[in-house]
């Protein structure tokens, strides 16, 4: 008899737990649905290491890059798991381009060209600064290569674009650079 009450009590506890989990799952699914509508970049998380897009968005010196990534529709892709190595040009790097270039690239009809340029700044995988070597070729997302050249003991992209800073992200690493890397 005592065993029956124990089993009945345990079954009731399991049912109550399932009901609670069901409610949590429903709430969680609603949150996931809302998040998926916005994309991975819309997930609010102020405690974890930021992903590449959130890291860039938090730096005013990268606002032109962030605008380009959003315009090209790549914010969700670069917020996903990766891993990615992104060479992120500062605003001053975009300012070095001929007048009107950035504005022209941000037009919807130039989305393909913008995607190619941004893809030329993105490598699938993580390469830290100390892993670069002279003459190293990296196959970028756009299907073309960049070459790492060591200048005065420091890695540069194609011998002309300097790495200013390197910041780890939850889904890769961002190398902040002083030039826009244009595909040939």
From TrEMBL:
FAS1 domain segment(s): 49-181
InterPro entries: Adhesion/Biosynth-related, FAS1_dom_sf, FAS1_domain
SUPFAM superfamilies: FAS1 domain (SSF82153)
Top-level taxonomic group: Bacteria
SMART domains: FAS1
A GO cellular-component term linked to this record: extracellular space
Coiled coil ranges: none
Protein name listed in UniProt: Fasciclin domain-containing protein
The organism of origin for this protein: Chryseobacterium lacus
